[in-house]
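Backbone shape codes:
***
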Amino acid sequence: EPSADAIVAADDEEITVRGYAYSGGGRGIVRVDLSIDGGKTWINPELDTRDQSPYKAWAWTLWEATIPIPENHSGKLEIVCKAIDSSHNVQPERVEGIWNHRGLLNNSWHRVTVNVK
């Protein structure tokens, strides 16, 4: 959340971004990096680990952050997120290096563009 191409009012001062992350193999999510400027600057949203051990995590980790929208911004915001697990595995930035014909294991950074009007 928000969904792709959502409209955010230009007079809103902030945007709330929510999502989920999962690593596999029982590795918990220890950090999520979130950006609203295409990855130029990053913040760390609050993680809801539901008392999961970082080494025995078998469920999604929910996260949420409220981020100020830059003053006098209009046009598009590119929201980007990436997750890091307890073994310090990080999602790859782009799909090109991991692409395959079946489309499997595409775990590159998630990107959503929203419109500020």
